[in-house]
Specification:
By secondary structure, the chain is an alpha/beta fold. It has helices at 38-48, 61-74, 110-121, 144-152, 164-170, 182-189, 196-208, 247-262, 265-280, 288-295, and strands at residues 2-6, 10-16, 30-36, 53-59, 77-82, 88-94, 98-101, 128-132, 157-161, 177-178, 213-217, 223-227, 230-234, 300-302. 38% of the residues lie in helices and 24% in strands.
Length: 303
């Protein structure tokens, strides 16, 4: 089973609008509402790939019920801890550039945190636990340093999809995968990355510090897989980018799902690239048929 942990889920409210005039009434062209949160996105893609998954974390209120109902409609298994107040709403304004307005989310009590810890303590060596995204404000991201060891205590593997210091702190737990983009990687080491060789060099530092595999995504310039056995570059797949929300999460899902079934990092990388690209070219997370179509177009070479 692949568990996904989303500590601060959301309704992602996508608003398409031609122009925005501050201080005036603006009318939408289209709007969409999706269950949001990085771990939730991973579970949704895994379900489409027919890979066993369970989404957990904290959820509350009428917004939380929308998220649960949406996941149930997709057949995603869930085991969330009920929070005392509403889950957040994140607004994504799509004009020429995308603007995000993210909600705060609920305050989590000690009892609610303990309930999640109990869920994580039931994982086994046959499981993978994906930790992704930010924590509720009263817990702060430092809470991952408490939760990750609980998931690992019975032998489960972990995947960590964080930014900045939270990612660095997670490396001591030897995650199966970390997935910074090239801007995030540069920020971690306070450097400028000008070439693929630069990215590989600093990607390898993630492995020295504990990661088993690292994928560094480069948006329209492809992606790199860094492993102890060798490094690989996936050429960018051509397409019309419609969606930046969830593409990285889809890449994590594709890699983790394939890795859980085959143990082959290169094959898992190909599925990660296919899933990430398919979501980038879709209005919402990618559908199964489109992922499989793009998988046939993935080209990977050793670097």
């Amino acid at each position: 089973m692949i568990y996904t942990v989303t500590l601060n889920p959301s309704i992602d409210y996508i608003v398409k609008i031609d122009s925005l005039t501050m201080g005036s009434v603006n009318r939408m062209d289209e709007d969409f509402k999706y269950p949001g949160g990085k771990g939730i996105n991973v579970s949704r893609i895994l379900k489409r790939l027919d890979i066993p998954t369970k989404a957990t974390g904290f959820i509350g209120g009428f917004t939380g019920q929308f998220i649960l109902d949406s996941l149930a409609q997709e057949g995603v298994e869930t085991e969330f801890v009920t929070a005392s107040t509403d889950s957040r709403i994140n607004i994504k304004l799509k004009l020429e550039e995308e603007t995000e307005i993210n909600g705060v989310g609920p305050t989590i009590s000690d009892e609610q945190l303990q309930a999640l810890e109990t869920i994580l303590s039931c994982t086994t060596k046959d499981d993978i636990v994906v930790f992704a995204g930010s924590a509720p404000f009263n817990l702060t991201n430092k809470i991952y340093q408490e939760l990750i060891p609980i998931a690992k205590q019975n032998g489960a593997s972990i995947v960590c999809d964080f930014e900045g210091q939270t990612l660095v702190d997670s490396l001591v737990h030897q995650p199966l995968l970390v997935k910074p983009n090239h801007h995030e990687l540069a920020a971690i080491y306070n450097v400028t990355l000008n070439t693929i060789d630069d990215i590989v060099s600093y990607g390898e530092k993630l492995l020295v510090q504990g990661a088993q595999h690292a994928i560094v995504s480069m948006a329209g310039d492809g992606a790199l897989l860094i492993t102890k056995a060798g490094n690989y570059f996936a050429k960018p797949i051509k397409g019309n980018v419609k969606n930046s929300v969830g593409a990285g999460d889809s890449m994590v899902a594709g890699f983790t799902g394939a890795m859980s079934q085959t143990g082959d990092a290169l094959e898992a990388f190909k599925w990660g690239v296919a899933c990430g690209s398919a979501t980038a070219f879709s209005e919402d997370l990618a559908e199964t048929s489109f992922i499989k179509q793009l998988y046939q177009q993935v080209e990977v070479e050793k670097v």
